[in-house]
Amino acid sequence: MSAHMEEQFVKFIEEYQEINGSHIHVYDAPPSPVEFLRNSVHPNRPAIIKNAFSHWPAYTLWTNEYLRDKIGDSIVTVATTPNGYADAVTYDPVTDREYFALPHEKTMSFGRFLDILEDKESTPDAHYISLQNDSLHTEYMALKDDIEEEISWCSEALGKKPDAVNFWMGNEKSITSLHKDPYENCYAVLRGKKTFVLLPPSEYYCMHESIYPTAIYTPTESGSYELKPLDPPMQTPWIPVDPLDPDLDRFPRFKHAKPIIVTVEKGDMLYLPALWFHQVLQHGDEGVIAINAWYDMDYRNVLYPSIGLFRNLLFENTNDKDDD
């Protein structure tokens, strides 16, 4: 990449940082649709909404005892990994390669999942309920009356209903690696707390996104896991940087990034705008529970093709360098 192009990317990043800083707007109560649209959606900036769902029955009902009684016998899908990183760039010492690693998806009763979370069943592996294809309306239908499936002020502001509503449950073993989603995301923490490391789309240059062969964690006869490349092979673009501990020798462009760290406490809702990069950590003695509503982003916005432009410019220059 030419020095001039590098300078222009850095200038673009710094100008956005100077204008917006690290400010996260906090609403003390659910905003009106107009207020939310004006202050958060249009500028594509995250926000914390207090007291957004304290009226949901789930806010007080969802103890482990209640959930065990309600859905303990239900069969659910659980993402299982040896290191807590599902959907993440992972080095495999056996093949001496980096892969985009998918979790092993294990089916079990929800009651058994709770036993693992409560250490009644011992395992070194991380277990995380993170099925994302509208899981509230598939595996967790029995819980849907405990929440309001639609966030009225958000739906009115965006002019659409959620594309998916998902149930999440896990503990501190599970960490979501840095990535972005093409959704407007309203993320409600009902138990425990979650820490989001956020970076705006303007910092795509800093991410060092690359293409990785895809592999999946597969149980072995000894009870451990091995990474098996998919057959037929599949390539996945992903971000290899840990924003909390970046290896700046490998990923020098990340030095221009300014991560924003936000802790979402029980009772808080995070508005995470489309295409914002985020890593997620969680903390909670009895497990962390969240519900999120995904709304399709508006692809007419200049943001989506801009990310495509950044990717094409950076990938093209990376490939040119490899050819040399």
Structure commentary:
With 324 residues, the chain is α+β, with helices and mostly antiparallel strands. The chain is 23% helix and 33% strand. The chain has seven helices and 19 strands. The protein has helices spanning 3-20, 33-41, 58-61, 64-71, 110-117, 152-158, 303-323; strands at residues 25-27, 47-49, 75-81, 85-86, 88-92, 97-102, 104-109, 126-128, 164-170, 175-179, 183-191, 193-199, 210-219, 225-229, 235-238, 260-264, 269-272, 277-283, 288-296. The protein has a six-stranded mixed beta sheet, with helices on one face. It has a five-stranded mixed beta sheet with strand order 4-10-18-12-16, with no helix packed on it. Strands 5, 6, 13, 14 and 15 form a five-stranded mixed beta sheet that branches. Helix 2 packs across helix 6 (152-158). The longest helix has 21 residues, at 303-323. It is globular. The two termini are 12 Å apart. 39% of the residues are buried. Residues 319-324 have low confidence and may be disordered.
Features:
324 residues; globular; disordered C terminus; 19 strands; single chain; six-stranded mixed sheet; five-stranded mixed sheet; alpha+beta; 7 helices; 23% helix
Secondary-structure element order, N to C: HEHEHHEEEEEHEHEEEEEEEEEEEH
- Mean pLDDT, nearest integer? 95
Strand order of the largest sheet: 1-2-17-11-19-9
Provide the β-strand percentage band.
Answer: 25-35%
Question: Major sheet: size, sense and barrel closure?
Answer: 6 strands, mixed
What is the CA-based Rg, rounded?
Answer: 20 Å
Spans of 5+ residues with little confidence (pLDDT < 50)?
Answer: 319-324
Tell me the overall shape.
globular
The class by helix and strand makeup works out as alpha+beta
Distance between the first and last residues' Cα: 12 Å
Number of strands: 19
